Amino acid sequence: MNGYVALSNWDLAAAALLLILNAALSVWLQLGLARQLLIAGLRMTIQLLLVGLVLKFLFAVVSPWLTGAAMLFMAAVAGYEVMARQTHGLRGIWRYGLGFSTMMAAAGMVTLVALTAQIQPDPWYDPRYAIPLFGMILGNAMTGIALGLNTLTETVTREKIAIEAQLLLGADRWHAMRPFTRKALTSGFMPIINAMAATGIVSLPGMMTGQILAGVEPTQAVRYQLLIMFLIGGATGLGVLMAVLSGVWRLSDDRHRLRLDRLA
Amino acid sequence: MPPPLLLVEGLGHGHLGPVALTLAQGECLALQGPSGAGKSVLLRALVDLDPNQGRVSLAGTYRDATPAPEWRRRVAYLPAEAGWWTPLVRDHFTDPAAAMPLLDALGMSTESLGWPVARLSTGERQRLGLARCLLNNPEVLLLDEPTSALDSDNTSRVESLLQDRLAHGVGIILVTHDALQSKRIANRVVELRGGQLVTPDPSQP
After folding, report:
1. Which of B46, B85, B142 should we substitute to test contact with A (largest number of A Cβ atoms within 10 Å)?
2. In 3D, which of B78, B77, B59, B60 has the Cα closest to residue B68?
3. Same domain membership, residue A4 and residue A128
4. Where are the domains of chain B?
């Protein structure tokens, strides 16, 4: 890897002008987006600069504990993000815990398999591989789980009469919720299905583009991207399935009742 | 002496109860009370659709000893509004062929099974909901205004179907705002007031 061009602060500042131009357009067109746009841009800049420093430190010390702690922190923030995207989330510890635990389980498991079976860095927990891999998998699982759970809680609230009609005819809770469980699973899977279908034609994935810019042979970059897409697909599927089924379980009880009182 | 068909002791949920009541085989109990008195809450509690306290038994078998789906097939609750979970009418019946005679008795075309739910009128929905519920052959029927959207001909059809079930030993709790309907099919009238079942005072309409 020797073909990469280092960027100066001036290069970045010039590119940032594009964002400021957008903000100016928003002011001119009275869209009211300028503030949000600038704050988001500023947030991103600070976050990424800090992450750069943290990663530099983590890559230097190569500690399994610090790497694990960083991953836990990432999952904790993602859990908050899933919670914030729910219009009618579950009550209590479930509101945060369901998204966090299913994401952590799915992304953690898949990352572990990828590190020990496919990429096999030395040591296997080398943060230079573990953290970016976990981050990409986590981010996609997060989107899927947030969508799946949101669709589940919205649909179940809206279709209360239809679900209870089935329960009243003697259906068990899984059967009565099935059409709506399926809907929630579909919406959770949709982003990753769309991403797989469009990848390579409509969009060149960020990681692959990054590797190519850093001088990696395109066919090798493609191999990495394929591996990542399979990992992301696996983790998202697993995470969405666990989250939606646990959601169905929590929104009903062992007397086969629909428990909308457990929603906020 | 055999146990009563339905025996309810100390049933409560929120502001409702504790409620005690018995229903004999072939008996029809009319349940009255102003809107919001908790009639639906009571019926939902009887089929265990909301968490509730108290003991309910069917012909001597306790509700808690029966899996909830089985309990709801034997003690059937028909809410005021029927629910639909797929687009076609037919898919709401486990055995559409078995529904034919019942639809006929309710004055519905058997072709209605092939219709989309969206095309049904309120009265048609009500009758199809009743048909669906009766096909489980429940031993107790809890009916929430089953004829509210029907004209007098269809109301008579429903009532004679209910009379027939009563004659076969089915017990019915019927929520109705129609005093004449109570007179026609109910053996007994109770009123829900302040969460308690009381015998209606004839001097207070």
Report:
1. B85
2. B77
3. no
4. 6-190
Q: Is the pLDDT of residue A1 over 70?
A: no
ipTM of the complex: 0.94
pTM of the model: 0.88
A155 and A245 fall within a common domain: yes
| CA pair distance B179, B120, nearest whole angstrom | 28
For residues A67 and A57, state if they share a domain. no
Residue B143 is which amino acid? L
pLDDT tens digits along A10-67: 899 999 999 889 889 988 888 888 888 889 899 999 999 999 999 999 999 999 999 9
CA dist., res. B21 & res. B192, Å (int): 12
List the one residue out of A240, A245, A263, A258 whose CA is nearest residue A94: A263
User: Could you tell me how many CB contacts below 8 A there are between chain A and chain B?
Assistant: 62
Of A163, A165, A170, the CB nearest to B82: A165
Identity (one letter) of the amino acid at A232?
I
Cβ <8 Å between B69 and A162: no
Name the minimum distance, in Å, from the CA of A148 to any CA of chain B.
19
Q: Report how far residue A232's alpha carbon sits from residue A55's, in angstroms, rounded to the nearest whole number.
A: 22
C-alpha A133/C-alpha A118 separation (Å) is 12
Decide which of A38, A61, A84 is a domain's last residue: A61
| Residue A161: closest C-alpha in chain B | B83
> How far is A229 from A29, CA to CA, in rounded Å?
39
Asked whether the predicted pLDDT for residue A142 surpasses 60, the reply is yes
Number of domains in chain A: 2
On the question of pLDDT at A170 being above 90, the answer is yes
Look up the domain containing A6 and give its range. 1-61
Instruction: Provide the CATH number for the domain formed by B6-190 in this structure.
Output: 3.40.50.300
Q: Which of A164, A255, A256 sits opposite B83 (nearest CB)?
A: A164
Q: A54-95 pLDDT, tens per residue? A: 999 999 999 999 999 999 999 999 999 999 888 888 999 999
Which residue in chain B has the smallest CA separation from A162?
B83
Same domain, A201 and A167: yes
In the predicted structure, residue B40 carries a pLDDT above the cut 60:
yes
* A53 and A74 assigned to the same domain: no
pLDDT (average), residues B157-175: 96
Coil, helix or strand at residue B108: coil
Partner residue opposite B85 with nearest CB, options A162, A255, A258: A162
The predicted-structure confidence for A207-238, as pLDDT tens digits, reads as follows 888 899 989 999 999 998 999 999 999 999 99
Measured between CB atoms, which of A165, A172, A253 is closest to B83?
A165
Q: In this structure, are A41 and A74 located in the same domain? A: no
Same domain, A174 and A145: yes
Please name the residue of chain A whose CA is at the shortest distance from the CA of residue B68.
A255
Identify the closest residue of chain B to A253 by CA–CA distance.
B51
